[in-house]
Write a structure and sequence with these properties.
Elements lengths: L1 H14 L4 E5 L3 H13 L3 E5 L2 H8 L6 E5 L7 H11 L4 E5 L4 H9 L4 E4 L4 H18 L7 E4 L2 E4 L4 E4 L2 E4 L2 H12 L4 E2 L1 H9 L9 H13 L9 E4 L3 E4 L9
Parallel strand pairs: 1-2, 1-3, 3-4, 4-5
Antiparallel strand pairs: 6-7, 7-8, 8-9, 10-12, 11-12
Helix pairs in contact: 7-9
């Protein structure tokens, strides 16, 4: 009973969180339907009627989700999906009248998190969006206790003690949480919006340098040369990545 109540609490907390969602569809009726549905859940919604206008909006900060129509007036939506994947791991749900198995497989193979055919059930789509965003957020929440070991790093989440090649460092709560997230998501690009929510419990803005400051502090502890980092790598326009290629090496 306790487990079920906790699961419901997580879902309720998610419902109260505002996510930044971009709706890309050339049909104004569909855009209105999706906008009203998402606004009812408290999300921040923007719209684009073409791939060109979508790309302009995608450059305006980070996004929690893109709802992407397959048939856009200026290109196949899957081409836009590829461009999104080149610079971001933002979740994308493809909405398409093309329901052939080949089309679905192609969309998922190019990096879509889900592929939903039109006409769709608004309730089903709403639940799929909720589940995807909640799973995404929970994926950036490491265990609150225990020890994480990777290569030369041993991090105790209980004491916030980091040992690197035998040298001990006492981390702040925010530093320990950020490093734990990196160590649990090695090789993944993590954008500032997700990191800000997970560490600072607020939305990221263009003027918010909190994550950058935390990254700089961590680099001073774990990098040979913080100005030329090898472990925590900046992915310009996307976020940060903890380098998988250094596995097995000492820092």
């Amino acid at each position: 009973m306790t487990l079920r109540r906790n699961a419901l609490d997580v879902g309720a907390a998610f419902e109260r969180q505002q996510c930044r969602i971009l709706v890309v569809d050339d049909d104004p009726v569909v855009r209105v339907l999706l906008r009203e549905m998402l606004l009812a859940h408290g999300h921040d919604v923007s719209e684009a009627e073409s791939a060109a206008s979508a790309e302009a909006r995608l450059r305006q900060g980070t996004w929690d989700l893109v709802l992407l129509d397959r048939r856009l007036p200026d290109c196949d939506g899957l081409l836009l999906l590829q461009r999104i994947r080149d610079r971001s791991d933002c979740p994308v749900i493809v909405l398409s009248v093309m329901d052939d198995e080949h089309d679905r497989t192609l969309g998922l193979g190019l990096g879509a998190h889900d592929y939903i055919t039109k006409p769709f059930s608004a309730r089903e789509l709403s639940l799929r969006i909720q589940n995807l965003l909640m799973t995404r957020r929970m994926a950036l929440t490491p265990a609150a206790t225990g020890e994480i070991t990777h290569g030369p790093f041993t991090l105790s989440q209980t004491t916030r003690r980091l040992i690197v090649d035998g040298v001990s460092h006492q981390l702040t709560l925010a530093e320990a949480r950020l490093l734990a997230i990196f160590l649990c998501h090695i090789g993944e690009v993590l954008d500032r919006n997700l990191l800000t929510r997970s560490i600072c419990r607020r939305e990221w803005s263009h003027n918010d340098r909190s994550i950058d400051v935390l990254v700089a502090r961590l680099r001073k502890r774990i990098e040979h040369d913080p100005k030329s980092p090898e472990w925590i790598v900046t992915i310009h326009g996307a976020g940060y990545l903890f380098n998988r290629s250094l596995e097995g090496r000492t820092s």
